[in-house]
Amino acid sequence: MRQILLAVSMALLASGAAGIANAATDADVEKSFFPYKDGAPTAEGVTPGTVINKGNVDQFKAVLDEGMFKVIKNGWYEIKVAKTTSFDQDKFYIDATKKNLGGTKLGPKTGDIEGFVAGRPFPEEPSESDPRAGEKLAWNFKYGQNWGDNALISPFYWKYRDLESGKVEKTLKFNFGFLNFKHRVQHAPVPEVTPNPANLFRGIYVSVLEPQDLKNTQLLIQRYEDDQKLDDAYLYLGFQRRVRRLATEQKTDSFLGSDLMIEDFEGYNGRVADMKWSYKGTKNIMLPFYNHNEMKLSSDFKEGDGYKYVDFHGQGGCFPDVTWQLRKVFVLEATPVGSSPIGKRVFHMDAQANSINRTLIYDRKGELWKSWTIGKSHPDSHLPINKGTGISIDDSFSMVDMQAKHCTTGQFKGQVDPKKVSPAMFQVQYMRGGN
Predict the structure, then answer these.
(1) Domain map of the chain by residue range?
(2) How buried is residue 405: exposed, middle or buried, by Cβ count under 10 Å (0-12/13-18/19+)?
């Protein structure tokens, strides 16, 4: 009898280690997608119109992540508080989550998932008692709605800046394209692009338009449905007129001399299997969520349709001139499994959008290295093409190297328009065509 009980206990432990079937309910889905339905989070002194600056930042330490607290304490930046608003997600994505509720579970190893079809894989509230809660949040991000089924950033300006002097050292102009080959919910073809002989999940395509010495440099990332399979990444250098495959370790190199790594794109651009994940709790902290059309906009770049980009200010011009909201946030720690210059990443994931908007990157000594910010605009206060999509628009970014006193900033013209991207764009042959 004792042996039978022991065998049953071990079987239950093995089942837990592999990740038991999702026990989420419709109420969990509602809470996941509409966290402010019964009211927004509050904190003493955090009211619309408040400015958090060097003089008063100590009283707001509880609603700031460590990196942003340091930035403000240094006098580099001030945060303007705005009302917390709901960034309602794509209806098709929510419906897919409900339809497939309870069908997804983790496999035996990090990077294994079973039964996933579409929507948010694990909409239940994360628990610190669940040893794989962090991994589940990583899957929610991977299969999230960042740019939806397909979108184009055109153009996308990056500026390389000296944090201390404010000197703009270089300006790059890009096009960035994104496309989900599988688990599509809104734009045809649904649910997947066919044919897809390589069984890709997602593609990212980057093309440099300016300056002349980098023009026609292209980057292609092909992410496979099987998370255990390494991404394929290719770089086309216009002056060499050839495509070369990037080695895996190059995703943590400086990308085109900027403060960003390829692994930084979209908050985190890697596999679930590349990291050891740990959920560190849920907090109410400040995140850069705002209405683009209500911000102070820059006149630096002229667009034919009159579109204007978010402006930057603060120390070195390294910080977006936008309002911030007190939002419900999941804190997630990721430690690289293999060789990496990074000691760990601490992600601050918006609980409603499941997007990563604040990341702290630590070096292998455990010291804060970089402070990474991605600002989100509500789609209904952006370009007309984005209105009603339910896709929270990446609209500004700031990557600050705290040690080197340098930064790279980004200004987006993001368009959730399926007509502007096609599956052909995410193949190596497209790069060779000189596009």
Answers:
(1) 2-38+85-142
(2) middle
